[in-house]
Specification:
5-stranded mixed beta sheet; 15 helices; 21% strand; binds histidyl-adenosine monophosphate
């Protein structure tokens, strides 16, 4: 029976005490996205497996080790999305968003699935807030994308935020770099893990991202892509830095960032927090100018990022940066006697229509127990309806914080509460 009351490893329920916090973060991110001209997109939770194999890349850890892939009843290979970019890019193409005014700016709040070793801030079902921009190739968009992410992190008061940027070049500079990498790793090829041995020919850049401690050690001293980027990529990177400098966005160039997904070109970036126990990287992103073509569209420049919502929440909780959030009722209506009980039903219905959140008892509690319940619910106001109140259409409205009471006509209750809230 235990199986029935235990959620699968690496998943989490977002119970009401938590969901208020999620909604707060989503409200903040939604508002900021709007101010940057980004609109929400919702794509399916699952896609054809091939989209991720082609998009995310078949030499990445995500595709090789972490995807939830299964055959559906029609025998098609389906994968629960491990991230949001591939689905957004597919929708951009399939739904002809490229035919609208360009660039197309999208954001999303989604659940993602990766078969990873669960720990604090690392789950198998996790959530991302992400943004993507299609159809603009200059570094101004890179800068705005980074500023959008920074704006969100600042507004959410995530402490100790550090922005690291790098350029990982285009296919032209990558070819030369790959040669240099193969030459470097040829000396220690036998010591690489089996996965990295297979990456050596196909995509040696991925070795730099391997989680195995032996491979990690072997990577120390490997050539850096930043030293190999072509003139165009270098100009793009310089352009980005100028925009960031001019906008007073502090950053650090970290030539070791390669990112864990294959679609990246040119600019890559990560925001880390110095807080302990939050898994460091709260946001990752970059340019991916080849992805749209890779999945069947015409060449289209693109850039985006995603933040791990669980990590954001951990950081906010550790730093105490969440505001006071409650969903407590504005009013509790207690009743004495059958007549008042019947009357209260329609009375409460009308109050709710006037925008007041109102609660009542359903368990035949005594008046004393009703008031105790009102307290537990955290109601801001309460009133008691008995025979007299129903007949005279007046009752005492009590402010539950101050204890103050005011006698008011029942038809003015909503107005009185709104004035005081
Ligand atoms: P990513 O770096 O794989 O990039 O993930 C982005 C963020 O999601 C990470 O920085 C982290 O905060 C969070 N995250 C990743 N895996 C987990 C996990 N297992 N548990 C909890 N949080 C996690 C992407 O997914 C790209 N699609 C980002 C992007 C958008 N690039 C361009 N556009």
């Amino acid at each position: 029976m235990r199986m029935l009351t235990k959620a699968p490893r690496g998943t989490n329920d977002i119970i009401p005490a938590e969901s208020v916090k999620w909604r707060y973060i989503e409200d903040v991110t939604g508002k900021i996205c709007k101010s940057y001209g980004f609109k929400e997109i919702r794509t399916p939770l699952f896609e054809h497996t091939e989209l991720f194999e082609r998009g995310v890349g078949d030499t990445t850890d995500v595709v090789q080790k972490e995807m939830y892939t299964f055959n559906d009843k029609g025998g098609r290979s389906i994968t629960l999305r491990p991230e949001g970019t591939a689905g957004a890019a597919r929708a951009y193409l399939e739904r002809n968003l490229y035919a609208e005014a360009q660039p197309t700016k999208l954001y999303y709040n989604i659940s993602c699935y990766r078969y990873e070793k669960p720990q604090a801030g690392r789950l198998r079902e996790f959530h991302q807030f992400g943004a993507e921009c299609y159809g603009a190739k200059g570094p101004a968009v890179d800068a705005e994308m980074i500023m959008l992410a920074e704006n969100v992190l600042t507004e959410l008061k995530i402490p100790g935020i550090k922005l690291n940027i790098n350029s990982i070049g285009c296919p032209t500079c990558r070819a030369e770099y790959n040669r240099a990498l193969r030459e470097y790793f040829s000396g220690c090829y036998d010591e690489l893990c089996d996965t990295c041995k297979s990456r050596y020919e196909k995509n040696p850049l991925r070795i730099l991202d391997c989680k195995s401690p032996v491979c990690k050690k072997l990577c120390e001293g490997a050539p850096m892509l930043l030293d190999y980027i072509c003139e165009e990529c270098s100009e793009h990177f310089e352009g980005l830095k100028k925009y960031l400098d001019a906008s007073h966005v502090p950053y650090n160039v970290d030539p070791t960032i390669v990112r864990g997904l294959d679609y990246y070109t040119k600019t890559v970036f990560e925001f880390k927090t110095t807080l302990e126990g939050t898994q460091g990287t709260v946001c990752g992103g970059g340019r991916y100018d080849g992805l749209i073509e890779e999945i069947g569209g015409s060449p289209t420049p693109a850039i985006g990022f995603a933040m791990g919502m669980e990590r954001i929440l951990l950081a906010m909780e550790a730093a105490g940066s969440l505001p006071e959030l409650d969903e407590n009722p504005d009013l509790f209506v207690a009743t004495i006697g059958g007549e008042a009980d019947i009357f209260s039903m329609n009375f409460i219905k009308n109050l709710r229509q006037e925008g007041i959140s109102a609660a009542r008892d359903y368990l035949d509690r005594s008046l004393k127990a009703q008031m105790k319940y009102a307290d537990k619910l955290g109601a801001r106001f309460s009133l008691v309806l008995g025979e007299t109140e129903v007949n005279e259409k007046r009752a005492k409205l009590k402010n539950m914080t101050t204890g103050e009471t005011k006698e008011i006509d029942l038809c003015d209750i909503a107005k009185a509460i709104k004035e005081e809230l």
